[in-house]
Amino acid sequence: MSSVLAKIFNQAEITFSIRNSDAYKQNFMLLKKLVDSLVFSDLNLNPILFSKAAFQVKNKAPCTFINLYEKQNSTFSMSIFIMNGNYKMPLHDHPNMCGLLRVISGQIKVESYTRIKSDIEDEILVKAEEPKILDELSASAVLFPENSNFHEITALNEPAAFFDILAPPYSDYNDSMEPGSRHCSFYKKIMFENCGKSPILKLVKIDVPDHYYCDSVAYKQPDFMR
Ligand SMILES: [Fe+2]
């Protein structure tokens, strides 16, 4: 198993441990640097999963999800999403979470949105950021509770895949109604103020879009994750 993945795992444990909260910023930058260096071959995955042919199978979901690491009460999760070519993962959020996203195959477009203040309670207004096109040569994209926390992700032309770390992980679906839970919501966008380069949009919660579903592939965890 790649030592890069082991280093990332180790650095994620350090970064997101409450004991190290004083050095969070420095640790996060070290983690990002390591994630930026991760490549497909570090993950020991079957390349067929990432091929066009994998998505030509009858009844194949538009996304393949591989859960690399998540434990009960763990401070972070690691996973891989493989998306069919031209598939757009719908706009969603990561409440009170940080994240790093590193492309390991193909090319993706990330459209991120940052929440801004609204005079109306519960109204979600966001500022659109400049879309980013990312591939294996790009640095990882990051999201924080207050910045770039909403995004939609498109695989450009061919199937594309990204590795991500979320900290803390999403809550268990069963806990989704608990206060402070971190449940993924989906949104539609409504133009609120078109002021040129960074339009302001209003986001309205929607049900999980019918087109969005994943099938999953089991991952043989290396010893250091157990
Ligand atoms: Fe996401």
TrEMBL record:
One of its GO terms (cellular component) is mitochondrion. Keywords: Iron, Metal-binding, Oxidoreductase. The keyword ATP-binding does not apply. The keyword Metal-binding applies. One of its GO terms (molecular function) is metal ion binding. PANTHER family: 2-AMINOETHANETHIOL DIOXYGENASE (PTHR22966). This is 2-aminoethanethiol dioxygenase. It comes from Polypedilum vanderplanki.
